[in-house]
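Hey L., structure's done. Input below.
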Amino acid sequence: MTNNNLQVYQGMAFGELSTQDVNTIRETIGKGCDDSQFKLFMSIAKSSGANPVLNEIYPTVRQGQLTIQYGYDFYVRKAKEAEGYLGYDVQLVHENDEVVVSRKTDDKGRSFMIVEDHKITFPRGKVIAAYAIAYREGVIPFPVFMERDEVSHLEKSNIGMQKTMWTNYFGDMFKKHVLRRALKGQFGLEFDDQTVDQNNNVPGYQRERKDITPNEDVLEGTTEETTTEEPTEEQRIATLRSDMKKKFKKLGITTNPKINKYLQDNNISLSDPATESELIGLVEILDMHIDFEENKPTSNDDELE
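Output:
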């Protein structure tokens, strides 16, 4: 997509989102939305402060109905912004691990569950459970314990890339799942996935089109409406291919053999030529890998281990 064909969704840009970001959102995670659904999704994202570019919020359309889903990253950020945040612990439990869970009582008589000991033996065996504990100053720890059977339905999901993510990256997804529940309980984060009526009236939310040049400030330019056409499938695929190459490069994957190995290692099969939906799915997986690499824990982190 050329700069002169960028669509400007007036009022959708917020925070550090540029107009190009909004168009990328529209053509990737927002591809399944019609114009009304996408406007509503972006309005909800803006009002909640969740940034789609940072994987904090997603739109999903099921049988024509829009559902808003909040990501793990949004829960972590909001928890860190909350008063008294003291971090968290989140772990997978394997079949050869030994975990001792007990009940404690604080000096105020409040009872809570705590992991008293977690011994690891190698080989660890298969993942059988996970737990997360969120800590807050002056409040008892909030634990969440889950067995694998409780999330098995997510591995069979037909929602977007959910099945792929849970199948290929089960451990990481399981930890994020239990942690989100723990943070929600400890900090009162009410960001449940929600199905919304696309006919809802969203005040002050209108789409306008502009013609811009590469050096023009697209957020403060003119608002004169033009007859710019929607991008063609060929243009959308070209944009996705360009985005895909940038993400591979960011991961240090710069040759065709390395790319083919990455696809094989992650059970990704592409048509020849790749379809638009296949490229969208691949870009989402690359985003997850980039996010994982950029947020690897250190010995001083209280992040995922």
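The first helix runs from residue 19 to 27. The chain has a mean pLDDT of 77.

-- N.
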